[in-house]
Amino acid sequence: MSVRILGSSPLVGPALADLGARFPDLHLAPFRSPEWNAALPQAEALVVLVSEPLTETDLDAAPKLKAIGAYSVGLNHVPVAACRDRGIAVVNTPGVLTDATADLALALLMALTRRLAEGEALVRSGTWEGWAPDQLLGRGLAGKDCGILGSGPIGQAFARRVWALGMRPIFWDREGLGGEVDFGPDRAPRLPLADLLPRSAVLSLHCPLTDQTRGLLDRTSLETLPAGAVILNTARGGLMDEPAAIGLLESGHLGGAGLDVYEGEPRLNPRWLGAPRTVLLPHLGSATVETRAAMAHLLCEGLAAALSPTR
Ligand code: DGY
């Protein structure tokens, strides 16, 4: 079998097909299917989705591998250190999904605080009896602090959005940096986690999942959020102790949770389905036509560079 590039999906847009025309042969098969497994030993480049975790065993089985293209900005599903040790280039898609992901976090925030799903369900049920002074009251945002975990591009893009709503962004960064973040229209402080959490009426997660950040929001830290706080997670499920968050929603301490990502997704803790004041989405952060095409383009440019003979 002749295989140069192995992936499971054509991605969005023409970029991967174009790459396959430039560097034949492109082979697509479901991840870990018998066809995929059979093609792996021949592959010089792999394309993996965020739902396709690679292991060092895969690298052992792919002695010709020169590059891995992750169709994501997150790299928690790729054994990056082992790739570095073996001289395998790792390409991902930073930058192009910043706005789409920040937009989705904002959509979760608005859906939760203005009770959009409940309102929509009421209208569709055919039982809406008309405007009432206390019907489906939400919570305002202006003048409140918004804690943002991660002061990189997505965290800053989210800060611009909540700033436009009149909120005050405050940041925490995994590098332990202090000082201020210049997020464009304004500057905001970087605080220790223990100082940020008790102030955060809204807490939005925008940092990568690494050995350092796994379980960052444990039960103790979640309990320090103010009563009624809303959590948004468009980053990775493993950043937060989900059973603890569910317990705090059930007890009424947390005001809501808007989630796009889950520990162990797509199988999620079944308690999420019954947890009150939640909006649950199926990992849609980067899911716009423009963004997914731009991700494919960036990934394929990186793989082309890694596969070109001058390298
Ligand atoms: C990412 O890029 O890491 C998202 O989770 C998927 O687009």
What does this structure look like?
This protein has helices at residues 15-22, 34-39, 56-60, 80-86, 98-113, 116-125, 153-164, 193-196, 219-223, 242-250, 271-274, 289-307, and strands spanning 5-7, 26-28, 45-48, 67-70, 89-91, 145-149, 168-172, 180-182, 187-189, 202-205, 230-233, 256-259, 278-280. Helix 4 (80-86) links the parallel strand 4 and strand 5. It has twelve helices and 13 strands. The protein folds into two domains: 5-94 and 290-307, 3-Layer(aba) Sandwich (Rossmann fold), CATH 3.40.50.720; 98-280, Rossmann fold (3-Layer(aba) Sandwich). The protein is globular and about 70 Å long. A six-stranded parallel sheet has the order 7-6-10-11-12-13, with helices on one face. A five-stranded parallel sheet has the order 2-1-3-4-5. Helix 1 (15-22) packs parallel to helix 12 and helix 5 (98-113) crosses helix 7. With 311 residues, the protein is α/β, with parallel strands linked by helices. The structure holds (2R)-2,3-dihydroxypropanoic acid (DGY). (2R)-2,3-dihydroxypropanoic acid binds at residues 50, 72-74, 97, 285-286.
